[in-house]
């Protein structure tokens, strides 16, 4: 185990809420402060710790995907660009719900519960009520609270936050932050599709060992690791073809393979597999092997994701969902009109949005006609004419050439039977 891994393990075992410092870790684990600093930064990327202004770095509980629509008080503090006035030790806790306190104290009491965050001005009576109910406080308008309120917050470990923004702006900022998190939730990552079973070969093993592993597991490709479990190669049936059973795997493996991490998007992996012509990639944490992803895993994951209900829409879906789709003999037709969301700062349809619609139409044509996933290889725009707000348009995507691996799609956009945009797209198939 490396020093970095040892420190990460030490941090994982700390109680949630523990304060962490470079100097203390360096002293406790007998490492340099530089090594401790790097490990703490790695732990922060892994969401094991969080650095909070005026509080420091603390051990936090990683929010799992099923809780991605929840945020901690520390995250709210960052979103509203605020400061913490009291209750520092509770900053890592998860917010139950947000309550706006623009009502009488009797009404406020009806709505707040333990774990809530009350958004309110400098109302001392409401502050005390909230803390008594186990509710944290976010004070708007850059205002503060009495020292006795801060003292209660410290005793109860309930954060009191302060921000210079007004209530409307705060709710908008929080809503946007939650929306972005929901979109991230729907991005399929390696950890979502990685199989639990892991099979691999060690560098000292031989071709005969690989043949036995193929027969036992039914798999044909394996990562090769050294004594530290670091990935040093990949071996496939093509590599061992004609090789003697006593031939060391290290002599015939493909060295320095492409690897991915747990938070790599599946869409990126599919691109890599297509461009590089590979069918399996090792998954690593640090440098150590923790799993593998195959083409079958990617295709299965993408199909499952396509059938899931979506809570939040990315921009591309917001735009394309405003259009209707009709199949044609050679492809598809998008029908829609220019909405305010599609305009640029000059009040005409953004060229980027039009290109997005055209490229999506091209990929949709391949999916509808051939029932195959594809990745854009090239997209050549011949010209684009401006469209105004509420201009109706039709985008035709026609498949004009099909080869074993590629499709070529002719894409034309019309407004009032006049061509307003023209492009040619080449796409590569994603096969098993």
From TrEMBL:
Pfam families according to UniProt: CBS (PF00571), DRTGG (PF07085)
PROSITE patterns (alphabetical): CBS
Protein's recorded name: CBS domain-containing protein
InterPro entries to which the protein is assigned, alphabetical: CBS_dom, Diverse_CBS-Domain, DRTGG
Keywords: CBS domain
This protein's record includes keyword NAD: no
Limits of the CBS domain: 194-251, 253-313
Domain of life of the organism encoding this protein: Bacteria
């Amino acid at each position: 185990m490396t020093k970095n891994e040892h420190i990460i393990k030490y941090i994982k075992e700390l109680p949630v809420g523990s304060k962490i410092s470079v100097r203390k870790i360096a002293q406790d684990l007998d490492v340099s402060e530089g090594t401790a600093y790097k490990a703490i930064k790695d732990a922060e990327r892994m969401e094991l710790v969080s650095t909070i202004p005026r509080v420091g770095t603390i051990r936090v509980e990683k929010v799992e995907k099923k809780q991605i629509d929840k945020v901690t008080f520390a995250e709210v503090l960052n979103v509203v660009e605020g400061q913490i006035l009291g209750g520092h030790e509770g900053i890592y806790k998860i917010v139950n719900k947000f309550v706006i306190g623009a009502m009488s104290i009797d009404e406020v009491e009806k709505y707040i519960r333990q774990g809530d965050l009350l958004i309110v001005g400098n109302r001392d009576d409401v502050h005390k009520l909230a803390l008594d109910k186990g509710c944290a406080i976010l004070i708007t308008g850059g205002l503060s609270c009495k020292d006795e309120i801060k003292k209660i917050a410290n005793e109860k470990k309930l954060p009191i936050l302060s921000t210079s923004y007004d209530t409307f702006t705060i709710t908008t900022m929080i809503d946007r932050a939650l929306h972005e998190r929901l979109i991230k939730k729907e991005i399929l990552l390696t950890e979502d599709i990685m199989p639990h079973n892991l099979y691999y070969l060690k560098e000292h093993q031989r071709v005969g060992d690989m043949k036995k592993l193929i027969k036992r597991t039914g798999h044909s490709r394996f990562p090769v690791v050294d004594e530290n479990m670091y990935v040093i190669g990949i071996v496939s049936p093509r590599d061992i073809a004609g090789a003697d059973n006593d031939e060391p795997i290290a002599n015939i493996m493909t060295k320095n393979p492409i690897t991915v991490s747990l938070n790599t998007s599946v869409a990126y992996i599919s691109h890599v597999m297509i461009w590089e012509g590979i069918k399996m990639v090792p998954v690593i944490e640090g440098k150590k092997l923790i799993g593998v992803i195959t083409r079958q895993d990617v295709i299965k994951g993408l199909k499952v994701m396509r059938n899931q209900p979506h809570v939040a829409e990315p921009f591309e879906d917001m735009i394309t969902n405003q259009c209707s789709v009709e199949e044609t003999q050679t492809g598809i037709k998008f029908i829609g009109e220019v909405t305010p969301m599609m305009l640029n700062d000059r009040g005409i349809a953004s060229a980027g949005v039009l290109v997005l619609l055209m490229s999506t139409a091209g990929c949709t044509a391949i999916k509808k006609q051939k029932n195959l996933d594809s990745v854009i290889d090239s997209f050549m725009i011949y010209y684009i004419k401006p469209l105004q707000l509420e201009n109706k348009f039709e985008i035709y995507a026609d498949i004009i050439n099909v080869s074993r691996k590629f499709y070529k799609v002719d894409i034309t956009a019309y407004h009032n039977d006049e061509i307003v945009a023209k492009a040619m797209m080449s796409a590569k198939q994603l096969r098993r």
